[in-house]
Specification:
Layout: H1 3-13, E1 17-21, H2 22-35, E2 42-47, H3 54-62, E3 66-69, H4 72-80, E4 88-90, H5 97-105, E5 109-112, H6 115-124, E6 130-135, E7 157-158, H7 162-172, E8 176-180, H8 190-204, E9 212-214, H9 232-250, E10 255-258, H10 262-265, E11 269-280, E12 285-289, H11 298-302, E13 308-310, E14 318-324, E15 332-340, E16 347-350, E17 371-376, E18 379-384, H12 389-393
Parallel strand pairs: 1-17, 2-3, 2-10, 3-4, 4-5, 5-6, 6-7, 6-8, 8-9, 9-10, 12-14
Antiparallel strand pairs: 1-11, 11-12, 11-16, 13-16, 14-15, 17-18
Helix pairs in contact: 2-9, 6-7, 8-9
Amino acid sequence: MNNNALLKIARDFGSPVYVYNSETIVSQYKRLTSAFNKVKKIKINYAVKALSNISVLKLLGTLGSCLDTVSIQEVKLGLEAGFTPDKIIYTPNGVSIEEIEKVAALGTQINIDNLVILEQFGAKHPEIPVCIRINPHVMAGGNTNISVGHIDSKFGISIHQIPHILRIVKNTGMTINGIHMHTGSDILDVEVFLYASEILFETARNFKDLEFIDFGSGFKVPYKKGDIETNVEEFGEKLSKRFNEFCKEYGRELTLAFEPGKFLVSEAGEFLVQVNAVKQTTSTVFAQVDSGFNHLIRPMLYGSQHEIRNISNPKGKERFYSVVGYICETDTFANNRRITEISEGDILAFKNAGAYCFSMASNYNSRYRPAEVLWYNNKAHLIRKRETFDDIIKNQIELTF
């Protein structure tokens, strides 16, 4: 999408607005599957939590994608989008056994990461095969909030507790049909990922009925020009070779599974906002926009950097601006960032807004959540309406005093 197309979207649908380029999603999906084209059975489970709009799910479905879900609501979204239960894996954390049973009743692949839940589920439903999420005790990821495979993580069953797993499997008679791990997001070092994969292979040898091994995801995407990213092609070549070797050792062709979210949709998204005012203080020039961390929380929560462009004045002289939102507390998108000269009414575009932006949005300060637009076949399609005041109050119950 060029600047003119984005500006027209801002005019037609208002700001702020999330825009997703379907061509980028398709390209990233094909890039990942191509990297592992030497593996006979590959399964891409898109992580719904990254961007859960039903039209995006349907688009991925046309590419052959399956889904990775973390809640019963995401499972139902997948079913609503046309995915069959066998194309959905459910990997919750800290949920009740009742929710897990409800999802299992839908026919979805269950992935369990708690010894207590594993034993309860196996005792009641030994006929339902389950996957087990392993914690490999590998510290990986670009931020402590998204590093989930280390020893202090709440996720997964420790590799040191494999004997406990085997005892539960033997006592309940349940079947383990998959092994899974997810070490974290923004992984750069391919060798760290391969090291964790060896732990998963070693674990897999304990289970004779496996159908798949799920290596999670966490591939880093670039956030600015010249930024580093995971070398997916190198990783694909090295892991494919090792996975094929393991399948021969295991005696059966297994499915190699991944659960990318950010990798598929992050770069596809742009978030468009309008400048309400330019405010000069004694030391800073603030560009105040019609949005805040209620719409894009990643910079405040993770310290993430999103490239910001002034698409209303792309060739102007660059100046330093701190881009801030309208939320009534510290609400900073960028500090002292070089951006072409900004005036009131200009449209700014935040890159890498496809993943964990709308899905983490809120109504904080009673603000409306923005519209979502999908750029598909060179045309902008509205895929979610902007909220209204009725949406804010529709579930509230007024008392009479």
